[in-house]
Amino acid sequence: MAQAAAVAKPPAPPRRRRASATPRRLPYLLIAPAALLMLGFIAYPVISVFYYSLQNYNPTKPWRNGYAGFDNFTKIFTDDPAFWDTLTFSAKWVFVEVGLQLLFGLALALIVNQTFVGRALGRAMVFSPWAVSGVLTSAIWVLLYNSQTGITRYLADLGIGSYGTSWLSDTSTVFPAAIVADLWRGVPFFAILILADLQSVSKDLYEAAEVDGASRLKQFWHITLPHLKDAIVLSTLLRAVWEFNNVDLLYTLTGGGPAGETTTLPLYIANTSVDAHNFGYASALTTVAFVILLFCSMVYLRLSKFGGEDK
Amino acid sequence: MSEARTSPPSPRPKAGQRAWDDVPRWQIYLPLSIYLLFTLIPFYWILLFALRPTGSTSLVPWPMTFAHFEKVWTEREFGTYFQNSVLVGVATLVMTTLVALAGGYALARFDFRIKRAFMLGLLCSQFVPGALLLVPLFEIFAKIQMINSLGSVIIAETVFQLPLSIILISNFIKNVPPSLEEAAWVDGCNRLTAFRIVVLPLLRPGLIAVGSFAFVHSWNHFLFALMFLNNPEKQTIPVGLNTLMGADSVDLGALAAGGIIAAVPVVLVFAFIQKWLITGFSAGAVKG
């Protein structure tokens, strides 16, 4: 790309800014490290995933390796109930988790945006789980949910739940238990992003609304929410993608169990490739997951009219 | 660096919030207290388990013991894990910040032919799940002989931090008026000096946000280290924690102590950056 830049070197017409010596190559040099890293460690792996998805590729069974055509894909859609189960669970997981995170995050941001005594400390404390994630969150909640010594025991005293069962090993409680654990670290993320955007709402708008006698609810509905829209759309999308892709928490918290009850599609893929060494099939699953993710994101951005009319 | 701020509107004039400030106090303190309980009980719980002797069911960590910490630090190799994690975290921070700074500057200040393609690549890469690229990444690192070297994890973490970091930093740089730089050029600075003297100080909140993000993410992230490092001496803290979690015979005291060792650096980083984080995001994150 640097060559392309060198060829098209114009006789430097007087330009408005950048009058100082600016070699045409500079921007290319500046993005080169990022571009090379991403080409090598994202683009190339993505392409090889597509390639492997058409192969039988299993290092433990090399005699069966070779071109497989669309066999892997046919199997996914016609002969793999686990795929549909994990996909359904992924959808449920992302939908509930991100929905609740957004709701609580918005509420929390509105609260800590107020001026009150102890605000700085309050903010620091409610945001702190953001820094803690994945495995550490799991470790903490494994302690809390422990059937013998966890907080579940004390909750049983209050009539919530029953003694001696771990919420993580019971199929009826594992989903809400995992949701709560993930909410603990996810809500602060939303709250931080939304709070950041809240601070840029012009205060004049509220004062004008106040003069016009608009209630607080109306102010929220007509001023705050529209202003936050882009931030909400963007953070929801990012979070949904991350929640879908993230394997750390469920892998360590439940291991996908009990009985596959909490296996997301990426977790299933990780198991297929790492434990079963079925790289070809895992790659096909990856391709499908990638397409689903991309498609959902497009639909979401379209539906939410991201950026409004000006873009 | 009080002369200029990266965010155009001055941060919260005292009287400005009036419309929202007449909220009854209980509507602030009640929900906040409930949420604080939810936030803090897990922290307390892990502290409790880490500090009280095995077998104790007391709800206060008294008598206090540091036996769990000693055990985890020496017998369970957390000393080594800790070193490795620090190395990975700091290296990821430095690489991400430098590479993103260069890329972000290019995006903010230049028009060039592949700019749109580059930005599209950044966006698309957000949809590429790191976990799903484990196999090809493993093969690449095997090919360049970096399996079992912390370098593989550092590279992988950096690469997956880059897209967002570049976008953030370029938004920050866009908020710095180009005229400031131009003034420095007129005064005889070259581009690099002008950037260092004029722009860089104004980017501090943004760089802190981006750098801390990179550090915290790589500190917490688990899967790359799990896959690319087989040698226990090269492992990082999250992997160590995971082995502690094991199956049924969990040593809860050790797990809690390990968890605290894992939490301390990120919580410290977080406490330090907290006030920059909000300004950082409001200037860089959400405005395209």
UniProtKB/TrEMBL annotation, chain A:
It is a multi-pass membrane protein. Coiled coil: none annotated. Gene3D superfamilies: MetI-like. The keyword Chaperone does not apply. GO terms for biological process: transmembrane transport. Its main location: membrane. Residues 87-300 form the ABC transmembrane type-1 domain. Residues 1-20 are annotated as: Disordered. InterPro entries: MetI-like, MetI-like_sf. The chain crosses the membrane at residues 26-54, 93-112, 124-144, 279-301. It is found in: Cell membrane. GO terms for cellular component: plasma membrane. Keywords: Cell membrane, Membrane, Transmembrane, Transmembrane helix, Transport. Belongs to the binding-protein-dependent transport system permease family. This is Sugar ABC transporter permease.
